[in-house]
Protein 1
Amino acid sequence: ATGSTSSFPWRFPLAFQAAPSILLLISSIWLPFSPRWLLQMNREDEAHAVILRLHRRPGADHEHTAAREFYQMKSQLALDRQIKATVGHWDVFTTAPNRRRAFVGFTLMFGNQFTGVLIIANYGVLLYATLGMKTYMPLLLSAIWVTLSLPGNIFTAFFIDKIGRRTFMLTGLGGILVALIFETALQAQFLGTNNAAGQKAAVFFVFLFIFFWSSFLDASQYLYLAEIFPTHIRSSGMAIGMVGLYVGSIILL
């Protein structure tokens, strides 16, 4: 828009993404081993030590809590081993209930991509420009839109256990539906006109979209996907769900 030929505006955001990756890499030195994995490797003492460390807090009976969790995890792993001894790698497809879970997981992750979240995330700058935003505003609005995912996901972390996965996702999808109805109606009416108020209202509903997506749907879909599968086929079920997500992404983008 300004005629600048500088590559900094696009090189810096890409390069800056290395910063949190480097921070995570350095911090991984202090990352504990998964206690469940340690139990799978028959390293029970190390697993108990990790659980104890994770529960340690001043002025509380953390040792009892840690011991109870260790026993629960050990019993669950023994049950999983017993079940795995009688099933194969494709057990996720061998029974009708498991096939239904696989279908639900795939269609959930596939369908959520078609709410349009990736379209707005990737083409937001063009969208805001067509809605009358000028100079730096399209890029700024797009950056703010993506950043709003952070508080939304924090909200999910605090309240999804209290409200429930299904209620969360239905609320998110319902809110997104309302936002998209108003968005398409406003664009049909005011796109290409000089009505600044109507175009700004359309921008508002783009932001209402990300409120419902990030607060109720983004993290919730992964949590729900994992929890509908029994432990012994959870990894297979998660893989099927992620195939749905990426197939939807490839089609859209």
Note: The longest helix spans residues 196-227.
Protein 2
Amino acid sequence: PLLASAHESSCIRLWSLQGNLMKELLPFSEHPSGPLTALCTDIFTKILLAGSKEGHIIRWNIASFLENSQNKKNEIKEEVCWRAHATEVVDLFIEEEKNVVVTASIDGSVRLWHAMTGYYFGYFGQARKFELSDTSRLILCPDVNNFPAIIKAKSKHMEKKKVKYPLMLDRDK
């Protein structure tokens, strides 16, 4: 068992039940996701999802890390990131049986997404029925027109870089 905390710096911290910091996660993304506002896992705690103030959803695979957190090779892998809402995500959960993620925003909308790819299925209150079996047809929601970013296996998470030497003015150059 572990505890997860989301922070304004876009960082997620994983803690042991004794209060020891086990891991610090930063998203791998070209665009910063902004302060994190919501967290959830699937019932088997293999997937960790985070929602942000900027409307992004980030998905990590944490299964191998939880099997043996002492092994440094068992890294947490960010798998996909997508823009779910134009405003802050206030809640989200995974419905494993249908393989969907449900997100809610301060704009009052509740939307459905494919859990593995971040593809948009629709919103609650729409006239048409949800088509959850067809994941090949990519549709975009009306207010967000960014495609989900699939994170490649070799991508590294953003790390806090420590500067060894401060920048100095070289008047000769």
Note: The helical segments are 63-67.
Protein 3
Amino acid sequence: PLKLPQPKTVPKRLGTSQKKPREPQIPRSLIKQIFRHFAKMPVTRDAFQIVEKCSERYFKQLSSDLEAYAHHAGRKTVETADLEVLLRRQGLVTDKMPLTTLIERFLPLEYRKLLIPVAVSGNKVIPSK
């Protein structure tokens, strides 16, 4: 008797890949743009790689500190007060330099409108809490 060829079974792939999951990163273009804005001079590729590593470590430490502050307060959400405490501990926010002044000095207008409350007609405050 003649045997018909049997289709080969292909093992199913699991939905997960074998690669290690990567942590989200700040886009290189954003770091480069910010650094160029403040440096105002050309930067070598090696120096920029060091700036990238430093900024990544800084933001990791910043986020873990904010997480610790919220956890200490018994919350699961980071609030503005946590950020203000962190900036005070770093020496960026003082009695002479409040957080709103830093926001006005370094952020564009569209972000300022989102972060600094402003009274408008009709006795409303924008942004509302």
Note: The chain has a mean pLDDT of 82.
Protein 4
Amino acid sequence: KKTEQELKDEEMELFTKYYMEWKGGRKSGNTSYTNIPRFYYRLPAEDEILLQKLREESRAVFLQRKSRELLDNEELQNLWFLLDKHQTSPMIGEEAMINYENFLKVGEKAGPKCKQFFTAKIFAKLLHNDPYGRISIMQFFNYVMRKG
């Protein structure tokens, strides 16, 4: 027969084992923490010329790619022209408005760089208590200029 102390020790051992398995402790074989990707790389030292050149070149390529994504002046003018052409009446004071249907039409005609701005999420974000379910063309255009 086991003594009372041995029974308590055995009970505590089983409790700890099952608790760690339930909690997701490391004893259960959960090794997801070993798969965390590396996200920090130290800056190259002054004597590591090749690494410095690689860093400069990769930064330049990244900035060129981002620059190509930006809308140039001609594309912005074309977007404004399309938005103005597809505005939905009635105007609110001096402010031109556009409904979702026309918003999507402009998105199809505006070109591939503008496609990212013609989403339901962005339309909903700019929608403010309009009884006809429209957004302000000026607010949308300013949004594009800030984000793009």
Note: The chain has a mean pLDDT of 86.
